[in-house]
Write a structure and sequence with these properties.
The chain has helices at residues 14-25, 28-40, 44-72, 76-86, 94-126, 135-147, 149-169, 171-198, 203-211, 220-233, 240-246, 254-282, 293-302, 308-341, 346-367, 388-416, 419-426, 432-456, and strands at 378-380, 383-385. By secondary structure, it is mainly α. Bound molecules: phenylalanine (PHE).
Length: 461
Amino acid sequence: MAARKSIHGEWSSRWAFVLAATGSAVGLGNIWKFPYITGENGGGAFVLVYLACVAVIGVPIMMSEIMLGRRGRQSPMNTMRVLAVESGHSPAWQYLGWMGVLAGFLILSYYSVIAGWALAYVFRTGLGWFQGQTADGVGHIFTEFINDSESLLFWHTVFMVMTVVVVMRGVRSGLERAVKFLMPALFVLLLMLVGYAMNTGAFTAGLDFLFSPDFSRITPASVLTAMGHAFFTLSLGMGAIMVYGSYLPRHTSIARTTFMIAGADTLVALLASMAIFPILFANGLEPDEGPGLIFITLPLAFGHMPGGLLFGTLFFILLTFAAWTSAISLIEPAVTWLVENRGMRRMGASLAAGTVTWLLGVATVFSFNEDSVLAFDFTFAGETKTNGVFDILDILTANFMLPLGGFFIAVFAAWFMNREASRDELELREPAYDIWRFLVRYVTPTAVAIVFLNVIGVVQF
Ligand code: PHE
């Protein structure tokens, strides 16, 4: 069969793909979310479960997603439909693409609000708000900020506009250029922050928290969170990586690129945590601070370190960029579909998708406002959540929709797509191909299913 071509263009090289996919993977998930959920879930043991999920579930699914994308060369819906029909199965597989698009909208709606926080903190840090502040002072500034819904709405709007503008311009011109410089810069800055953390006096306490597992802290809910986060941080289960894979030139090694992306993503998350926890312990703060964690610990550090004004500003700029490159991939599946099936231009499609997401995001804005009805408390699997709609969206998407999407991607790649097709596309030698196939056939789906069942309470550890 002649290989298909994407109507949306192709990456200029394998590097471009690695950078873009890394840009999608590395984002708020690594620097904002991973540290705060690690803090909430007791540290070491949670980190271990997360790493295991990345290796056993994340890597095989990422390979599958890239493979399906490159084989289908279209939006996730059309890719799934075409590939299913081609191997003699129901076109209903396209609904997997639909679930992904829905997940993308829901995630981006809150993602953009948090990215707005980062954007606001660029200016606050730059203007010296945190210079010489105490932990209490920094905490107070943060609380006041998230209760100021107008401000949050403003920054959410700015960030959505930024995202839509890049998506309009298409993958090549918009995306490739940005990631090339920003990813390495972010990495260097994180290393510097870890260097600072080494001198806080609590570096060992931080490392201890992160790397000595206390398995009594593990619950079915925390395992679900760790697994969900493996999907979230690697951008899996909703078609983002599938769409990026659809622009991937033929004959680039999918396995090798997957290792690079997953490796870089994990490294960034671990570095961020190694910077944050020592700062936190050195200042007598609590690890279970929640979504505000990095917005309290890091400004505190920037307010006291030499050159903190500069580095702090730079840090939040880079964090915003990291979030930007992820946000783009969150609406790209919807945009490609609108272009393919609704005959829209990229511009109109991006605007439409951006507007819907922006509207949805308003619910998250109010989730952080104590006076709003959207900021209610609730318990989920024994854990108390305090940020109403935001927490619901987060749990629904990261803990359920992405793993469910990933589950079906693995099942499709392993059980429905014919063997020749996957072998041809992955171009792996024995035994690597068999290992991949064994993982996606048996191990990955079973692991996801067990974690789900556990939370539902059908099976207990
Ligand atoms: N991986 C991104 C992050 O860690 C978030 C994301 C999820 C992006 C799903 C695309 C798809 O911030």
